[in-house]
From TrEMBL, chains A, B, C, D:
Residue intervals of the Thiazole synthase ThiG domain: 4-247
A Pfam family: ThiG
UniProtKB keywords: Cytoplasm, Schiff base, Thiamine biosynthesis, Transferase
InterPro entries for the chain: Aldolase_TIM, Thiazole_synthase_ThiG, ThiG
Name of protein: Thiazole synthase
Matching SUPFAM superfamilies: ThiG-like
Function: Catalyzes the rearrangement of 1-deoxy-D-xylulose 5-phosphate (DXP) to produce the thiazole phosphate moiety of thiamine. Sulfur is provided by the thiocarboxylate moiety of the carrier protein ThiS. In vitro, sulfur can be provided by H(2)S.
């Protein structure tokens, strides 16, 4: 069982809500994923047309909302957006995303740390989305983040664990849960992150942009469980030389 | 549902029986894996002490035996061993393994093709274990193999899909099921093979040498199912540039 | 010709001075490398025993010193060390290294940006050593850095370009020279960095810890030149399908 | 100095002659490469128009021709083509290429071994082009091949050393020179192959299809020399933990 931000989760697959072809498809995929923590961009909440609103599709008892600040460009905007989000979505949890660059959407380390400090003081449970930078992760932890969310590869790239060497260091050093976010394009990527010892993963594009998002959501569910189980069951070590699965003897000589 | 050698299988995880610390641990792990096809080295069958025999632990209705010729050094020995195996294990299915080299246990392409031709004529359903060589795979198919079993990495190395570029070609070209064998060291590796379109995988060392083989078997079970489901649901494409999960606008400007 | 910090360099191989078995071996290797920019830790300068001092071995007209702040833990210490270094080594050039973590020696993004701002105002030509974080690189450039020095892998690991996907983005976006620093363990790694479009590389451990540091220095020299030349000559694109080098016809039919 | 097939070579860069935009461009690039062994497809030799013939551009004292059998589909055709080539190009050296598949041009292990046996008996110095299959390489050596030419990736793909794990085993086990052929798309790939201990590399597409083939040829020349030199100077080992280039002490405390 994963504990983070004062909540407990059976599922270690966190999910996003962007890019689905419809709200009902999104709802169906999220239910299939077994996810209990779902991130929603504040800017996507339609406060004026509540009937069409995305939040209507997320009203399930097991679903905890994780508002995110996608679209803000600095700490000041982030703090403002966070406060709006807390009110709109009635939760202290916050995924902090500050990415000034519109091409790769990579996170800003300086503004993210600054906003984390301020938001923690304001009582938010901050999940910062950041580069896989081990030193930054420790600083965010010290600033009061309840988890860290290092990226695996640029958002939406589906490239997998391109930051693996650094994720291993982050996982080794962290005192708060490590959630690998962004870039996970296939269930095998998610399983790999879990095998390394990540506490959870966040997946959005790979599910929403699959030909069959509902089936893909289920595939990620199983892969995350498989990866976690393998982490707990401890993988056999990598060997340079082959090691036969069965004892090698020229047994026919004896016949 | 997978069809191969005239049999049908719900599970796409094939398993091996070597390296477990006891026969009862092996039995428990194989049951947890959900595997329906289990390979057994002829040389490990103890025809003189039937009570201690490994086969006693494999007597489950859903388990199909796949005898293997591990330990033979050429086609002639393989054909002889195959005939003994057919008698001892009462099946025409045969995993053909010819690896003269004791250090890396890599398969011999020439003797394997020769033995496949002969064994197919003798009515065997041959599953040859071979290098991930696309031309050789086509020749084996033409020689009557019911499946091909290219390696992912040297046996027991747990290195994963080191032959990926060639497995993709093999899968694209094959008219018989492709079973990735050897080198799969983690559930994520197995999921990856399935995502590429492999029909099944064979895992032994990674389960048997895990700290908890029974849990690891279950992890592989889920990973294989996840990978297959993802293959069928079609993965989203890899992108060079980031693609935001949520529409990017400087929404705060509008507040 | 590379221009950086108001200097011009024929060689795009920057070098370090740590870990050599003797000062004279270091001198010989640096001369063999053709390097024109050599980084020296201020803490290694022995101001009390000038005859034994490392600087005596670096007195060659073509060698420009690049003092570094290795050993400092924050911006304040870095600024102090920089001023000592400017005096001791009589140059405005400064490699800024702030790594509080003694295990992996990874750089601190926050303190590095802060120190860069201050040092640029004090007239230093700052070369900050940092994680391969594209957003941070842009901020350092805006703060007045004359170059950015993203890491390829943890210092001394010899793992190569583990940050490749992010180096490509940094190179694409940077208006100042990009020098790949740390982790380059083989000439092929250095060539690869140059093929991607890096302006230069910095190598230390891979030369100093080779069995033959002088020969390895020469190998890196050639590899860097090869990589730069290939970048300028533009690599042929990667192809999914094979493309024959010679026209494929069943020419024998015509004989 | 490399010895193979009774000849000695200063250069460990072997080259091909396909895909250049003109014969004179080819000649210029080959001269820039420093290569002393150049492969030519028999089918490209124009016996009826000797003035236009490719061989006219290869008449340099330091250039040894290596005829190849590209275009043949089996051992029988290969033996016939080899005999024509020996006559036309006046050399016993022969690059044996048998690739029945027109899409990926991957070599046929069975026919290649068969042809090698026959050609060795006929006095040819056979360089077989094959998959990176360690067992097959040993068989070819036993059949009389003077070198083995395992592929790095499919011909013309420029993907680099996709077969690295197997090349390492081949190099470890071989008693004849190992020449990595096919797939090397950048000087860094060639340097990497040499660092692993390959005796030589063969490059064609990456030079011929570069924007500037002459400069690219020179880049490969330097990279191959760099890689060989690094192999001989012995690379420093890969480390899991960072190792500082300079001794780490909080030296400022002492000031």
């Amino acid at each position: 069982m994963l504990e983070v931000g004062g909540k407990t989760f059976q599922s270690r697959l966190f999910t996003g809500t962007g890019k689905f072809s419809s709200n009902s498809q999104m709802e169906e995929a999220l239910l299939a994923s077994g996810s209990e923590l779902v991130t929603v961009a504040l800017k996507r909440v339609d406060m004026e047309n509540p009937e069409e609103d995305i939040l209507n599709y997320l009203k399930h008892e097991h679903l905890q909302l994780l508002p995110n600040t996608s679209g803000v460009r600095d700490a000041k905007e982030a703090v403002f957006a966070a406060q709006l989000a807390r009110e709109a979505m009635e939760t202290d949890l916050l995924k902090l995303e500050i990415h000034p660059d519109p091409k790769y959407l990579l996170p800003d380390p300086i503004e993210t740390l600054k906003a984390t400090e301020e938001l923690a003081k304001l009582g938010f449970k901050v999940f910062p989305y950041i580069h896989a930078d081990p030193v930054l992760c420790k600083k965010l932890e010290e600033a009061g983040a309840v988890a860290v969310m290092p990226l695996g590869a640029p958002i939406g790239s589906n490239k997998g664990l391109k930051t693996m060497d650094f994720l291993e260091i982050i996982i080794e050093q962290s005192n708060v849960p490590v959630v690998v976010d962004a870039g996970l394009g296939a269930p095998s990527h998610a399983a790999h992150a879990m095998e390394l010892g990540a506490d959870a993963v966040l997946v959005n594009t790979a599910i929403a942009a699959a030909a069959d998002p509902v089936a893909m959501a289920k595939a990620f569910k199983m892969a995350v469980e498989a990866g976690r189980m393998a982490y707990e069951a401890k993988l056999a070590p990598v060997q340079q030389h082959a090691v036969a699965s069965s004892p090698l003897t020229s047994f026919l000589d004896q016949l």
